[in-house]
Amino acid sequence: MEFLVALASIMMVNIVLSGDNAVVIAMASRCLPQKQQKMAILWGSAGAIGLRVILTLVAVVLLQIPYVQFIGGILLVWIAAKLLMEDKGEEDIEAGTSFVAAVKTIIIADLVMSLDNTLAIAAVAKGDYLLLGLGLALSIPLIIFGSQIIIKLMDKFPIIVYVGAGLIAWTAGEMMMDDHKIGSAIHAVIPEWLLPLAVTLGVLALGYWWKKSHKEATGEACAKEGHPVQ
User: pTM higher than 0.85 for the full model?
Assistant: First the structure.
């Protein structure tokens, strides 16, 4: 059961953090003929997936090093908060005018935007390569072929994004507690579950406050300009 929960967590994290990657894939190939579009998406995604797997394996190894694991936990807190606080809009991605250019754009853009996925998935896997491999193998095809559905679901049901952010925040707290040096010192002072819980509640509260205040600020700006609030 613990293995299945961790596997579901990896898939959830990968799906929630990969919405922008799906948009990149679509935009990079939008200027190609339809037949070349499909091939560019296929080869570009294959290259991006290969590099993502390599980066994730490297991250798993690095997270075993004392202090690096604690720092990684802090970065995960930022990733979880950013997921709830980012504004949605089109990515500034140049469309490739040739097959090779589109594939290159997909690989480079996806690689740059996948650093958060890499760290989060490596953290959830906790060094279990079987778990890591199954999680990536099951979630990546879902992202590529069901990306538009995923994006629409997250727009319609914002709770999905909150669940994903909460999961990442909890993982961040666990990662900090698991650090052999700093985590051990913290554990001597507080219960093991307290830091993950505090981090998770803090991130969710910050995200909720930001969305609420941002929406009110947007509404006031629209009212001043005489536009209806969306």
Answer: no
Give me the residue label for tokens 């202090």.
Answer: 67
Counting every residue written for the chain, the total comes to 230
Q: How far is the CA of 115 from the CAs of 98, 111, 119, 125, 201, in angstroms?
A: 27, 7, 6, 16, 24
- Are 160 and 138 in contact by the 8 Å Cβ rule? The answer is no
Contact assessment for residue 114 and residue 49, using Cβ atoms and an 8 Å cutoff: no
Measure the CA–CA gap between 177 and 69, rounded to whole angstroms.
Answer: 9
Low-confidence ranges of the chain (pLDDT < 70): 18-31, 86-97, 109-114, 139, 142-148, 150-151, 216-230
- How do residues 7-20 score in pLDDT, each as one tens digit? 888 888 877 776 66
The burial of 80, by beta-carbon neighbours within 10 Å (0-12 exposed, 13-18 middle, 19 or more buried), is given as buried
| Domain range summary for the chain, segments of one domain joined by + | 2-225
Q: How many angstroms separate the CA atoms of 110 and 50, rounded? A: 11
Distance from CA of residue 141 to its chain's centroid? Answer: 16
Residues 6+ apart with CB under 8 A from 58: none
